[in-house]
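Single-chain item
Fold in C-alpha cell form
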Amino acid sequence: KKMSEVDVMLKAGLSFHERGELEQANHCYQRVLALDAESAVAWHLSGRLAMDAGLLEEAECFVARAAELSPEVADYALTMGTVFALVGKNDEARVWYEKALALDGAMQEAYLGIAQTMWAERRFGEACALAEPLANMPGPLGVSARYLVGECRFELEDLQGVFKWWKAVSGVDLSSGMV
C-alpha cells in the first residue's frame, strides 16, 4: 500500500526530529499542516518541536490545538502538562497530567510529572512518595524518578535516603565513606 504524502512527511519529520535536525522537521510538519490543517499528530509534533527549541508559548498553542482536535489522546495531555511545568504553571500542569492519567492510567510519565510539580512547590515528601514507585523502572523514566527521589531526600535532609538513591543512580556507595 502506498503511503500518502501526509504520512511520508510525518515519517520524514519524525526522522529529522529524532536526529536533531529541527529546521527540516519543522518544514515537514508545516507541509503536513498545509495539506491537512486538522492533523492532530502534526500539531502535536510541531508543539514538541517548539518545546525542544525552547519556544514554549508556541509549543503551548500547537499542543493545545492537537488536544482540541483529539481530546482522547493521552500523549497530547501529557505534553500539555510538560509545557505548563516548564513555564512554572504547576497547577495547570497537574490538571493536564491528571487528564493524561484519566485517559491512560498506565501512563507513568504523568505520575512523574505530577511528582516534579510537587518538588517545584517544595512539597518534597509528597513528591518523593509519588516518585519512589517509578524509580525501579528501566530507562529514562526510572533514571529521572531516581534523581527526583534523591533530590527530595536531600531537601528533606534524609542523608541515608540520599546515599541509597545515589547508589541506585550511579552505583557509587557514599554511605561507606569511600568514593
Observations:
- The chain has a mean pLDDT of 90.
- Residues 6 and 35 are 7 Å apart (CA to CA).
- DSSP finds ten helices and no strands in the chain.
- The radius of gyration is 19 Å.
